[in-house]
Amino acid sequence: MPLPFLRKILPLLASTALCVSGVANAPAAHAAAPAAVQKPGTITASAPLADVLSLPDAGRALRITYLSTNGITGKGLVPVTAEIILPAGPAPQGGWPIVAWAHGTVGVDDSCAPSLNPVSDRNRTYLSAWMKRGFAIVATDYQGLGTPGTHPYLDTRVEAYSVLDSVRAALANVPDLKNRIMIVGQSQGGGAAVATASYAPIYAPELDIRGTVATGAPYVTPELLGGLLKAASQPGIGYSPLINYVFYLAAGLEGHDPHFRPEQAFTPKALPIYRNAAHEYLTSLSHQTQEAGLNLQNSLQPTFLKAMSPALKAMAFPTLKLAQPLFTGTGTEDRDVPPALQLGLVKAACAADSTVQAHLYKGLDHSQVVNGSLPDSAAFTTTVMTGQPITPQCNPVPE
């Protein structure tokens, strides 16, 4: 149902202000590390994180720039930014274990990088709960989000390398951290968390990852996407938040693929909004797409899948045979990442013989499932952190 005017415009203004104000805090340049020490996880710049950007009751907090393998090409190094937030008080013996936090969609403009903006109320509650469990937070912005170059949205290799190298950087440079890690993410970050777990054994085998918690995680195959688009083409189907993510996906592809032609993906009705998408925060873009009356039916060309095939290919996981247990949380009322896509991930991971504990939360939407899943993810985390076996659940029922 349409939101009242004030409920729509106030978050829009707040979100836009956050993105714009963050630019002033961005470093003007990224200092280069000496050639002899340039490797993934090398920190090239570090500064205290402003209190307004940190978490309540946190201890030491930093914003770092580190080097990560270029996930687009698979070689070479690029600068990436991240936050490192430690709990207050003395560290436990051996140091704080780490939550490697993979954030959800905020936009693809540099000014919207999470390390340049205050934490949302939802994420403040969520990450504070993890800190109260005794974890430090290491939170990447992802390649190209707040640093030079495009942000290849939903590219699993880009996301995984950014997450893994942020943890390498933190462990190598920040005292009182322990090489014992939970990978945690929501929405875009839910997919990034699964991608990180998928790439970790080959890319960063030295990291002691104990488990993965993914809520609202997208999983796209040609079959699932085809079914989704077919359903969207039925008469009477209105606005879907998916159109915003599709615009970001295309903007990321256009930023590094000279062969991409937007007019082959989007209709004349959708192209003007698409051309704004790369510079819009999610709240603002969502407002624009609704005002323009866009939906998947009137926005996508028949050649959409062909035009977007490189980006869709980059969303694939190298394997879903994960080395550690996976927790998933899905809301039955999720309209941003339809439950069919999330449960498709559960089915595929279970078929690959991963240990999966899937939860389906009745009545919760895409955002509500984040904090709604906290009690279950707490039990899951205690189990995997202590090396106990997980009870698998591959066919969740609404709870």
Automatic annotation (TrEMBL):
The keyword Oxidoreductase does not apply. Residues 1-26 form the signal peptide. GO terms for biological process: lipid catabolic process. InterPro entries: AB_hydrolase_fold, Lipase_secreted. Keywords: Hydrolase, Signal. One of its GO terms (molecular function) is triacylglycerol lipase activity. The keyword Hydrolase applies. This is Alpha/beta fold hydrolase. It comes from Gluconobacter oxydans (Gluconobacter suboxydans).
